[in-house]
Design a protein that fits this description.
mainly beta; four-stranded antiparallel sheet; six-stranded mixed sheet; single chain; 1 helix
């Protein structure tokens, strides 16, 4: 298996408001979306024939303390298969790892591993994270192809979520960029601006049309976003920062 390197973190901060989910989304969780993790590559069909993980990239959940890309789940064993020649994202000397969460569990911490050695940890404070969380990692001392094991440890259960990310550090490209302005999640609004729990639900989507925030989408609904057609994979209420794109493959699939 290839060598795996991860290096001390500089926290870039968190962004985006919480996701209001219904139906099957309540059982969804989270994964590294950028640079695309192995499950994100499967979900976007950049890597074909991945099996079940292509439909639920957010579900690589296993007991805490594992050191595997598949979280110990046999149905996701493809994520441990290095013979598939996973595409490696070319980055510069620094890269921002972005997690997206479709169920925002209280967080003990996020860990980044090299083999069995923990080289970086970000404290979660046992608080509920934002819908999108980013950590900036300095990789300037370690050029070449690397695989990062990123772990999200839940604060109130014995479980964790696992993502492996393949990178080509300093491979001649520019540093990994943040999401475009049209898809980047906004800063978290102050608590006083959040809608009260008694606020009426947003109107249900009738299917079709252009994707919009504050809309209740049902599984199977189709929308257009930036000229691309998408089909809803899980019922949810849309928020800014959850546009149909690589960052929300748990919710939308290009058609």
């Amino acid at each position: 298996m290839r060598k795996v390197f991860v290096y001390p973190l500089v926290i870039a901060g968190t962004a985006a408001a919480g996701l209001v989910a219904t139906g099957s989304a309540a059982s969804a969780h989270g994964y590294v979306s950028a640079p695309p993790s192995r499950q994100a590559l499967c979900a976007s069909r950049a890597v074909p024939d991945c099996g079940q993980i292509q439909f639920e990239p957010q579900s690589v959940e296993g007991p805490k303390g594992l050191r595997s890309c598949d979280g110990g789940l046999s149905q996701f064993a493809v994520l441990n298969d290095d013979s598939r020649a996973w595409p490696a994202r070319t980055v510069g000397s620094s890269v921002t790892f972005t997690w997206v969460f479709t169920a925002r569990h209280r967080t003990a911490n996020w860990e980044y591993f090299v083999g069995n050695t923990r080289v970086a940890v970000v404290d979660g404070g046992n608080q509920q994270p934002d819908a999108v969380v980013s950590h900036q990692v300095d990789l300037s001392r370690f050029p070449g192809r690397r695989t990062v094991l990123a772990i999200w440890n839940i604060g109130d259960t014995p479980m964790a979520f696992y993502s492996c990310v393949d990178l080509n550090v300093g491979g001649g490209g520019t540093p990994d960029n943040p999401p475009p302005a049209t898809t980047a999640p906004p800063a978290t609004p102050p608590a006083t601006t959040r809608p009260p729990t008694s606020a009426p639900p947003p109107p249900a989507n009738t299917g079709g049309g252009t994707w919009a925030t504050g809309t209740a989408y049902r599984t199977g609904d189709e929308v257009t976003f930036q000229g691309q057609r998408y089909r809803c994979r899980q019922s949810h209420t849309s928020l800014s920062g959850w546009e149909p794109s690589i960052f929300t493959l748990a919710l939308w699939l290009p058609v």
